[in-house]
Every structure is written in C-alpha cells, then in structure tokens.
Amino acid sequence: MSGNAPDASWPVAVVLVSGGLDSATCLAIARSEGFRCYALSFAYGQRHAAELRAAESVARTLGAAQHRVMNIDLAAFGGSALTDPRIDVPEQASGGIPVTYVPARNTVFLSLALAWAEVLGARDIFIGVNAVDYSGYPDCRPEFIAAFEQLANLATRAGVEGAERIRIRTPLIELSKAAIIRRGTALGVDYGATISCYKADATGRACGRCDSCRLRRDGFAAAQLPDPTHYQ
To answer: I need a labelling partner for 231 at 20 to 30 A (CA). Which of 137, 149, 160, 193 fits?
Structure first.
C-alpha cells in the first residue's frame, strides 16, 4: 500500500516504526485515517539491527512523508537480551517480565517522538503497542499509555498552550495478533518485508523459535493467512 502521496493539508502524525509487524500495521492505519505520517525509528544498540532496513522499506512503501532513524545507546545500560549479547534470547515463554524487555524503551522512544511532534506541529503520536498477544512488557499496557499522554500534555509547550490535546494513539492495543494481521492485510501491508524476530540474522531471516516468532507464527495461523516470514 503506497497510496497517494501525502497532501500538505492532511493533519500530521509521528509514527514509531520499528520494522516489525505491529508498527507496520500502525503506520498503515495512520495513513488510512488521513494523516501525513512522519516515521521515526531508533538504532538503540539492538542486536537485531536488520529491523532498521525493514523499517526503511516499510516507511517508504506505506507512504511516510519522511523517515528518520535516531541513534541512541540503550545498550550502554544493558539489562536486556535484545541489547546485551551476554544474555541469551529465550526460546520458551517464562513467567513475569521476560529478559527481552528493554528497560524504559517505550518511555524513551515516546519522549523523543514527542519532541519531534512539537517541532512538526503534530497532535498525534502513533505507537503499535499491544496488550493482548504480547510478551508482558510493562510499557505496552493501557495504563502506561494513559500516564504518558498526561505527561505529554503537562510537560510541553504544545500541551500547555495548544488548542488541542496531544494524543498517544494505540490502534492495536486491544487487538489479537490475528486481528492485527487481518487489519494490515486489508490495508495492503507487505508482511514479508517486516522483521519481528528477536534473533534475526544479518539478512533479516527469523529464527522461528523466540517468543516474538511464536506470536507472529500463531497470529498468521489464527488469521488463516499464509506466513510470509523468511526463516533461517
């Protein structure tokens, strides 16, 4: 779905785009709602950096007005299997918050998206968090999103002086993975160009064994759609 080129009269939104299935669907939804989308990705020290190439492809094919990759070093703190090669990515689901949780990641990402939104004059920030088929991350919950939205309207000039509230938009938060896939497919998302795997190789091929691969594979099965994932 490349769609029509963004029109200057469309309202502006910042969309967080990781290169994964959920964020691609989120971008497609934002475009379908008539937003001129500015896609923001992060090179944060993640081990599976192939997702950034996927993010670039997703932003281009789904018609983002601009795509930026911001460099931040969350790997400097460690504490996550996604940033520290000394911590193994688990292949079995575990109780509690898994080691693939990156400390404060969505808080940092949304804060930087908020800064760009202020500069662009955007009142809407889209993020593809999900609280149904997900890995138990605390920064994917509706309570976190509501709290951050309140912060955004207290801590910014746009929030204090603006005529409209700043909105953190989470169109996927209550959808199952199958429902997300069906919605994105209807909007023309090419899921073969996305990468969800926590252990993707340098070419972007998925391991097929990590929690993210399991959720993705089960989602396509439940949606009764072919899985276009490239596996190792």
So the answer is: 137
